[in-house]
């Protein structure tokens, strides 16, 4: 087993542990819908809201964004990259479709943000071009590799930085989504693969809450 494979397994185990530890507490939570139904839809809520670190990134328009200031609306964070051959375009296409299945008031309060795990190639211009392809109002964030890794680790979505010396390299990353509440704290995860029908039934009640 290579060092990279070992690292991947360790990271996957950590994420699984974090998600697993929340299940019992989530099952006893109140006021955010039926916990069992939420879990069936892939929505895993944290037992306590988690603050985001004060890290500076850049959006697809070249504007600075401090991640602990993602407030006002609900946000779904997806960690991916524009040269991804499979997971990223499929997930973003599903999220675009999901938007069409949500009530207008829910769509108005729910943002989708792709955080790059490939800053070597994902410039703001590249992010803008890529996200515009989906024509869904998606936003993007990129920045320094170290900052992006700190952000990913802080929300328990670690990834393996790529060897950028290789031609047409790929990046090992998760397909899970991070749920950020309107107060700017992490509320939980949506586990991959996402199920649009079930999410469309559960997200309106979640978003209408505080």
Automatic annotation (TrEMBL):
Residues 46-208 form the Thioredoxin domain. CDD domains: SCO (cd02968). SUPFAM superfamilies: Thioredoxin-like. Keywords: Copper. It comes from the Bacteria. InterPro entries: SCO1/SenC (IPR003782), Thioredoxin-like_sf (IPR036249), Thioredoxin_domain (IPR013766). Belongs to the SCO1/2 family. This is Copper-binding protein.
């Amino acid at each position: 087993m290579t060092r990279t494979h070992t690292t991947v397994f360790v990271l996957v185990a950590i994420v699984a542990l974090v998600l697993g530890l929340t299940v019992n507490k989530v099952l006893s939570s109140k006021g955010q819908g039926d916990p069992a139904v939420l879990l069936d839809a892939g929505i895993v809520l944290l037992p306590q809201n988690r603050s985001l670190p004060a890290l500076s990134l850049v959006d697809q328009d070249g504007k600075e964004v401090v991640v602990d200031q993602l407030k006002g609306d609900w946000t779904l964070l997806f960690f991916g990259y524009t040269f991804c051959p499979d997971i990223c375009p499929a997930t973003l296409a599903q999220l675009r479709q999901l938007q069409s299945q949500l009530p207008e008031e829910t769509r108005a309060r729910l943002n989708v943000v792709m955080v790059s795990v490939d800053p070597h190639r994902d410039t703001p211009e590249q992010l803008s071009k890529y996200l515009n392809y989906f024509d869904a109002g998606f936003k993007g964030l990129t920045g320094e590799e170290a900052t992006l890794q700190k952000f990913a680790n802080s929300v328990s979505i670690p990834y393996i930085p790529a060897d950028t010396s290789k031609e047409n390299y790929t990046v090992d990353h998760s397909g899970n989504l991070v749920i950020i509440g309107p107060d700017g704290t992490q509320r939980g995860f949506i586990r991959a693969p996402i199920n649009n029908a079930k999410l469309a039934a559960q997200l309106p009640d979640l978003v209408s809450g505080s």
